[in-house]
Structure formats: structure tokens, C-alpha cells
Amino acid sequence: LPPAEAEALVRALQGTELRDTGGQGWLRQHEYVEKLNMHGILSASAGQEQLLTELLVTHAKIPVLIGELISVEIWKQKVFPVVCRLEDFKPRSTFPIYVVLHHEASIINLLETVFFHKEICESAEDSILDLIDYCHRKLTLLAARSTGGQAVASVDLPSPSSMQELQKQAETMEFEISLKALSVLRFITDQVESLPLSALTRMLNTHNLPCLLVELVEHCPWSCWEAGKLKKFENGAWHVVPSEDHVKMTKLDGQVWLALLNLLLSPECQRKYRFDGFNKSQLLKLRVFLTDVLIDQLPNLLEMQRFLSHLAVTEPAPPKKDLVLEQVPVIWDHILKKNSGKWEAIAKHQVKNAFSPTEEELKHQARRWAQTYSLDMMEALAPDKPRCRVCGVEAAKRCSRCRNEWYCTRACQVQHWQKHKPACNLMA
């Protein structure tokens, strides 16, 4: 995005009411988030995300994004199941509902891209407590997963309805969102020195995040065995891991270990954390995982090894209770109180006004999404370079009429023309 357009989109971000989810105004907000999300990924890959970071801080939009994130999380928990149960709701297209489900993924992805920077973490102010609670809920879901299952352990129905298909997609997306939340939490723990006191107390004592992270190290929900082969989840997909890479640390493993390092080795955290019998026994489970191979990949873990050896033979002093007033997160409670008892009414309102578009409205929306997800943008985000349709080598040229097929040279394009011509005419 040009800087002026990026600034206009950031300035236009604003909170929406839960009841308006899926409506026209809400869809515009989702469009802005989606464009900023793609802009953030491209900028970060080029090492130029400073502009987006400055805009979000200057216009104080991080609390707005956190509010929207929690709003759509509550919608998924309270309203979406009601929509799925409505017997008389047979949507022509489930895409409007899918967009709402996808909104959470877009926001957490944008936050993951920018939370690497200290000033973003500080600009969250009091809403950082809500984000910590959000990450805790997602990590609890992650830890509760069956250790043997893959991302989704749902039963395959012979001919699922469109709503059942949507529920299945929501489950798959939930897994990926939880992994993004893990990264965001790790970036928050990078800034323990500049976090409000209440944030640290909430992470260490209210939610006991060190023990939750130990669970993730133990059960590692992003890896599983299937038909005798080890599979790991990376970059949005499950991959079979060659035997020589079985002990190689993935990015997700690294995020968990770095978060543990931040929470256990910071002097401020050690002063506030309760090293009682249970917590101590849980943390000492980490010693078995700290092999020489792992420490070679992340040398900082040598300090963790020393800390755990010391913890095993000492009784740490009880934490100092120096915080009398404690802040509490407000966004989740505010949305629940405001809409409590109205979930069915909200679902029926949204089915009537947002999720049952006419043919003309669907076409209009499709045109808008086609502009948002332009081919050039999607290709820039794609991990693999396009390949020549004829010989398979990396291609830099494409058919100028339909812009759908790629070629390495004009000779390959001419050779393929007779086969490609009917499809090209149709698309052009």
C-alpha cells in the first residue's frame, strides 16, 4: 500500500458492536484489516514494517484491534452455534459467515506481525490484559488437544451440508489461530520489563503461564505420528518430517522455549512467581527435554538448564505481595454483560440482515473481494514462485489475455497455445 492509503486505512479502523457483525459497516472494517494484514506481511518480509507500526501507535489502534479480536471470539462461542442450529436457515452461500470466522485469523495475524516491536506492546496499554487472557484461552485449547490427533479430529460425513462444512473449517482455523496466539504471547513476554505490574501478575499467578507452557512442551500439539511417520505443522500445513530432521526445532517449539526463558529467568518474574511444590515439580519436567541437541539449536537454553538445576536443590523465597490494587481486563466482560441473554435474537437478526444476501448483493461483495485479494498481492504472499506450464522451471512471464498461465519463455507459450486457447478465450 502507498503510505497515504495505509494511513487512511489505519485511521478508519474503529470498534464495532457485536450485533452489527457481518453487516455492511463491519465488512468495510474487515476489508481494512485484511488489506493492512497483507501489507504488514509484505512489509515485514522486506524488513520495512516500521511505517505500519508507527501508524498503529500514533493513532492508538492496537486497543481497537484487541477489542475486535475478542468481539469475534465471543461471536464464535455464543452466536455461531445458534446460527448453525437454526433449522429454517438454508443459506445460498456460506461465504458471509466464513468472512466473520476468518476475521479473527486476520486480526491475530496482523498482531503477530507487529507485536515484535516494543512500542506496539506499550501502546496496547490496559488492553494488554485482555490480550493476555485471550492468548491464555487459546493456549489452553491447544494444550487440551489429543496428543495423537492432527489439527482437527472431526468425523468425515458422507455428504456434509454447507453449514457442517463451515463448522469443520472453523475448527481447522481455530488450531491455526491458537498457534498465532502463542507467537503473540511470546512477543509480550519479550517486554516483561516494560509491562504493567498487573500484566505480569496475571501471566504468572492468575493464569500460571509457565506451567501451561510446560504442557505444550510435553504434548507438542503441532507434531504427531501418522502411519509410522512424524508430521509437523509449519507455515499453515502438515508436513512429513524426514528422519534426519526429527530432532530439529520448529519455529513453534522455539516460541514456547523463548517464552519460558522470558518468564522464568527475568529477575522481576522470579520475584513474583510462586515456586510452590506443584509449580516446581512441573517446571522440573523440562530438564528431560534440555538435551545437548536442543541447546545447540538455542544456546540460551543453557541458562535455563542451570536455573532448573539450581531450582531442584533449593527452596526459593515466597513471592513478595507488593501489589494491593490489581487491574482487571474489561473488554470480554463488557461485551458479555451487554449482550447476555440476547444471543438467539442477535443470531436471528444477523441471519436476516447479513447472512442471507440476495444474488445481486453476493455479486457486489464478490467484486469487492476480488479487488481486495488482487492476483498480484496474492502472488507476492505465495511461498512458491510460479512455474512454467510447459517445462516446469521458474517463470517470470504470464499470458497477457487471461493472466492465468505462466511461461519461462515465449517459445514455451507458443508451444502451449493450442491447448491453452479454449480456456484463454473463455476467461478473457
Automatic annotation (TrEMBL):
Keyword Zinc-finger: yes
InterPro entries referenced in this protein's UniProt entry, alphabetically: ZMYND10, Znf_MYND
GO cellular component terms, A-Z: apical plasma membrane; centriolar satellite; dynein axonemal particle
UniProt keywords, alphabetically: Cell membrane, Cytoplasm, Cytoskeleton, Membrane, Metal-binding, Zinc, Zinc-finger
Keyword Magnesium: no
Primary localisation category: membrane
GO molecular function: zinc ion binding
Coiled-coil annotated residue ranges, if any: none
Transmembrane intervals: none
Subcellular location: Apical cell membrane; Cytoplasm, Cytoskeleton, Microtubule organizing center, Centrosome, Centriolar satellite; Dynein axonemal particle
MYND-type domain segment(s): 388-424
SUPFAM superfamilies: HIT/MYND zinc finger-like (SSF144232)
Protein family per UniProt: Belongs to the ZMYND10 family.
PANTHER family, per the entry: ZINC FINGER MYND DOMAIN CONTAINING PROTEIN 10, ZINC FINGER MYND DOMAIN-CONTAINING PROTEIN 10
Job of this protein: Plays a role in axonemal structure organization and motility. Involved in axonemal pre-assembly of inner and outer dynein arms (IDA and ODA, respectively) for proper axoneme building for cilia motility. May act by indirectly regulating transcription of dynein proteins.
This protein's name: Zinc finger MYND domain-containing protein 10
Native source organism of the sequence: Serilophus lunatus
Classification lineage: Eukaryota, Metazoa, Chordata, Craniata, Vertebrata
